[in-house]
Amino acid sequence: MERKEMSKQKNIAIVTGGTGGIGREINARLVEAGYIVVAGDMMVPREESRKPAADQPEGVITYSVDIRDTESVEEYVAYAASLGQLKVVVNNAGLLRHGLIENITDDALNTVWDVNIAGAARVSRAARKHLKEGASIINISSITAKMGRMRGGAMYGSSKAALEAFTRYLAVELAPSGIRVNAVAPGFITVLPMSPSMRFIAHGDNDEEALAWCTQQTPMGRPGRSDEIAGPVLFLASEDASYITGHVLTVDGGVTAA
Questions:
Q1: Diameter of the chain by CA atoms?
Q2: For a tag site, which of 2, 44, 48, 62 has the least CB within 10 Å?
């Protein structure tokens, strides 16, 4: 009984999309800050679910979850909350499907929306009953929410703009409970290999061409690193950001300033 009570004092974070490049860096930063991280991802094999991540820092547990499915999300969040006090929710899972308006498919339209905005809402809804004063929700948006020059990125950018609106509404809703809700909007972040959709949006036939285009768009003269997103996420989760809510922190090397 005593051991169980002690485990309840542990601070828990959930990170969706927790096996990708940005997700893994967020996991590592949260572990360094003392959290146990339950990294949820549909790419996690079921037999590896609820096990320590073999290729991530100690303190990261992987979990097989499909954020398009309410039951899957509820089970995921309930498991994380059973390990201790759920303090941080990072809605990092996202899906990019490119397409010019004349040829984008219904499947792409529906899937992008279902993952990028409805998925974040499902996770936040499931987490709400476990969150107490001082908890934090952080949504991972994108600079595509603010600009329109990403070729074929209309639906992705629109879903991220919706995610930013969701961030503001949820921040106001949860502020009386002492729960903060913010977002981080990354610019061009180097995660290789790039998906075909990312290469298309970045005007490249291959990773090298796409990275060159991203570099040209960025006043700082280089794409960002995944750890440069993880740091701002940790800041927003920390007491240093205790009076920040409803804010979108843009981390883009100056792209949207130019």
A1: 62
A2: 2
206 in any annotated domain: no
Q: In the annotation, is 79 catalytic?
A: no
Residue 3 has pLDDT above 60, yes or no: no
Q: What CATH number is associated with residue 75?
A: 3.40.50.720
pLDDT digits (tens, 9 = 90+) for 66-114: 999 999 999 999 999 999 999 999 999 999 888 888 988 999 889 999 9
Tally of domains in the chain = 1
Q: Which residue has the tokens 């820092």?
A: 57
Q: Which residue has the tokens 């934090």?
A: 136
Q: Does residue 22 fall inside a structural domain? A: yes
Q: How far is Cα 142 from Cα 160, in angstroms, rounded to an integer?
A: 6
Supply the range of the domain harboring residue 124.
2-190+224-252
DSSP 9: T
Chain mean pLDDT for the chain:
93
Partnered with residue 89 across adjacent β-strands are 14, 137
Examine the pLDDT at 4 and tell me if it is beyond 60.
Answer: no
Asked whether 44 and 63 are in contact (CB, 8 A), the reply is yes
- 139 and 167 Cβ atoms separated by less than 8 Å: yes
Asked if the structure places residue 203 within a domain, the reply is no
- Read out DSSP for 195-212? PHHHHHHTT-SSHHHHHH
Opening angle at CA 129, ends 126 and 133, nearest 5? 125
Q: What pTM did the predictor assign?
A: 0.93
Of 142, 89, 96, 98, residue with least CA distance to 115: 96
Name the active-site residue from 35, 156, 169, 243: 156
Higher-pLDDT residue of 248 and 5 is 248
Angle between helical axes of 120-128 and 70-82 (0-180°, round to 10): 40
